Amino acid sequence: MVVPSLKLQDLIEEIRGAKTQAQEREVIQKECAHIRASFRDGDPLHRHRQLAKLLYVHMLGYPAHFGQMECLKLIASPRFTDKRVGYLGAMLLLDERQDAHLLITNSIKNDLNQGIQVVQGLALCTLSTVGSAEMCRDLATEVEKLLLQPGSYVRKKAVLTAVHMIRKVPELSNIFLPPCAQLLHERHHGILLGTITLITELCERSPAALKHFQKVVPQLVQILRTLVTTGYSTEHSISGVSDPFLQVQILRLLRILGQNHEESSETMNDLLAQVATNTDTSRNAGNAVLFETVLTIMDIRSATGLRVLAVNILGRFLLNSDKNIRYVALTSLLRMVQSDHSAVQRHRPTVVECLREVDASLSRRALELSLALVNSSNVRAMTQELQSFLESCSPDLRADCASGILLAAERFAPTKRWHIDTILRVLTTAGTHVRDDAVANLTQLIGGAQELHAYSVRRLYSALAEDISQQPLVQVAAWCIGEYGDLLLEGSCEETEPLQVEEEDVLALLEKVLQSHMSLPATRGYALTALMKLSTRLRGDNNRIRQVVSIYGSCLDMELQQRAVEYNTLFRKYDHMRAAILEKMPLVERGGTQDEEIKESKEAQLSEASLVPTEPQASELLDLLDLLDGTSGAAQPPPPLEPSPGDVLVHLLDLPCDLPSASPPPASIPNLRVFEREGLQLNLSFVRPPGTPALLLITITAINTSEADVIHFICQAAVPKSFQLQLQAPSGDTVPAHSGLPVTQLLRILNPNKAPLRLKLRLTYNHFGQSVQEIFEVNNLPMETWQ
């Protein structure tokens, strides 16, 4: 006998009336016991009521897996009330991870062939929700037949089911190509919207389907033109726009069909201009259609005037009061700035105004676009705006803003003096947020501008006297004072205000830097070296400098202590050589040739007497990537690399040495580009030292030609188990935009068996605000790398 239980309405009222969670659980447990008892007794008349209550319990988050088989029984029932609840239960309780969902395939197939529309609709909904790849293959023929049924109710659901099938099993596309061509003549908007979605899925997954549907572009253009020119329709209009959902979907399909296809793009040009000029922008529905129109114009081979119109639409979006629309406009303009730079430049004042937005996401997008708009003609005005923004922006944006200003100044600086002034202002405003190479770049810039040495040292001295908290600024100022301190004391610079500086003032300022708790060890090293160099540039007594240097001979910091001891030795034993040793630094040219890279790689090889075992990080990467084919068992470790006596001598003395070479110099190995995406390039250069033919040195060079920095850049490598890999630390984790200073990383690979070399590389980085991860194999390395 079936145990009496609550009705669904009474159960809902009792659960809602529970005052505590414990009371709710008690009610649900009691009712679930009744439901289980009813399922065991096999009451066919009330089974759908019990399952309905169980589905409500499931929606509250409680376990209801014991009702899965009851769903199958209800679906197989001839009664519609049973089928309705059974199909609903299948959609909620079953999924592809459970084998039980395959048991309803036959029931769905029978219901699809019944001819009863409401039952067919239930079966199609369930198939499009929980249909696995196997179910889609088995039922594709039945769904294809229903696409051409006379009733719009079934056809609409069949189209949506076909979309699900294509997403699950793309190879089924050939089955649905013929019906789609007929469904495009449909006047029912729901069916037409589903058909456009189905064609879009087919074109994205099948090149053959893309080529097939490029022939129907005129038909799609006519459908969209009809929507645009049709008057107000109560059934389909939203905020005065005729069926914006269908318009947006057609525009997306046209964008796919027009990419790299001249004829299709030409066919839709006039229509896109008509949509862009006739759509009402007072409501959000019109803005959505306009935005899709802009994206379509950007992606197809559109006319120049049409692209200018698209940029102007985005410019109007920037004036919209809705923050979401302004954000979309900034993001889209950033995509277009490379292809339509002059058109986007017309909206530069509006973009600069967006820098003052309170919303952090808007100001960040405006900053990225502003930096992309900088060129040689507007660099002065744009840099001034960006520097004003740098002074007031949030700390999260300061690093990106400072980095962008420095890169723009390096690329478009009209004069060296302006370049120096710009970097000094950035260092003064946000010195702690600049990139690591800012100090080296500025010192090199000042060193190469001989006519600005006096001007630079006086500007830096004044900035240092005002603030010693910005560490990069302090380091550059200390270096410059040490190199050109004599010019500071002469006071002969006509480009700055008169500044009377005494020797005691300079020494006191550097001592203040040394004693400040804000100074980093590297900054103290700069200051100590500057004091030492001033001992040859000042005309007074050097006793004060000697005392300061001697104090740091017992410093806890090893680097400072070593410098102080060496400088004390210069004073005591080699005072006659001090002036020559402490001469001004020669100008170092930026960038290096391939020969210099080879030399650096050889020096890195000479600096280690033997090959260090692979680091744990590399070992973990081997397991992580499950790399290549490696033989079973542990590989025998290769013998250590024995340096020749001449190599050790060169390393110890760190002096050039022309030792006779027993073997001829190795033949140059051609470089290899292994990766390129959105401006980021990865190149490999190879060196095989003559003394150790089993060793291969690979220098990975990352170059960024895009408009935005690549940040958090990590390159990891793995090789088969018969090789031994040592992955050294990279030169940095930021690849600057506009072909700035590249990031390099050295790989040392030992190949004792001279086996063909294969590499697997994994790149992780952030670019244009998105996190990217790429894993790829390099198996086309030159034969010279391993033979």
UniProtKB/TrEMBL annotation:
It is found in: Cytoplasmic vesicle membrane; Endomembrane system; Golgi apparatus. GO terms for cellular component: AP-1 adaptor complex. The keyword Transcription regulation does not apply. Residues 667-782 form the GAE domain. InterPro entries: Adaptor_Complx_Large_Subunit (IPR050840), AP1_complex_gsu (IPR017107), ARM-like (IPR011989), ARM-type_fold (IPR016024), Clathrin/coatomer_adapt-like_N (IPR002553), Clathrin_a/b/g-adaptin_app_Ig (IPR008152), Clathrin_app_Ig-like_sf (IPR013041), GAE_dom (IPR008153). Pfam families: Adaptin_N (PF01602), Alpha_adaptinC2 (PF02883). The keyword Protein transport applies. Keywords: Cytoplasmic vesicle, Golgi apparatus, Membrane, Protein transport, Transport. It is a peripheral membrane protein. Coiled coil: none annotated. GO terms for biological process: intracellular protein transport; vesicle-mediated transport. Its main location: membrane. It comes from the Eukaryota. PANTHER family: ADAPTIN, ALPHA/GAMMA/EPSILON. Belongs to the adaptor complexes large subunit family. This is AP-1 complex subunit gamma.
